[in-house]
Amino acid sequence: MDGLGVLVLIVGAVYSMIAFLLRKRVGADDPYHSYRKNMGKAILLGLELLVAADIIRTVVVSPTLPNVLTLGLVVVIRTFLSISLQVELDGRWPWQRAESGGSPEGLK
């Protein structure tokens, strides 16, 4: 799972860069915004996979109290990073989506 999370980050970064360069070359509207959105999505997915890997590792290898507390701290930090990235990408809190009535793709 760790390897899959890292692979998602690498593939996402490469895809984002290629898409950015192609849009910039074609002269599309705001290629940088598209790059940031693609890169942010890749980072969010990679973080979710890395959190899942940490949970699996803690439960399978040795579920001792220090390991569970360490896992809790890691999950809290990664959750904070995920929420921060989501706010950066969407420009609003994740729970405000339902209140706005708009689709998640209809941003900015």
Mean pLDDT across every amino acid position: 82
Order of helices and strands: HHHH
Radius of gyration from the alpha-carbon trace, in angstroms: 17 Å
How many structural domains in the coordinates? 1
β-strand number: 0
Beta strand %? under 5%
Ends apart, CA distance between termini: 33 Å
As a percent range, the share of helical residues equals: over 70%
Counting DSSP H or I runs of 4 or more residues, the number of helices is: 4
Task: Note down, in words, how this protein is organized.
The chain contains four helices and no strands. The protein has helices at 2-26, 31-60, 65-90, 97-100. It has one domain. The protein is an all-alpha fold and 108 residues long. Helix 1 (2-26) packs antiparallel against helix 2 and helix 2 packs antiparallel against helix 3. The chain starts with a helix and ends in an 8-residue tail after the last helix.
Reconstruct the topology from this structure.
Blueprint: H1 2-26, H2 31-60, H3 65-90, H4 97-100
Provide the descriptors you would attach to this structure in a database record.
mainly alpha; single chain; 108 residues; 4 helices
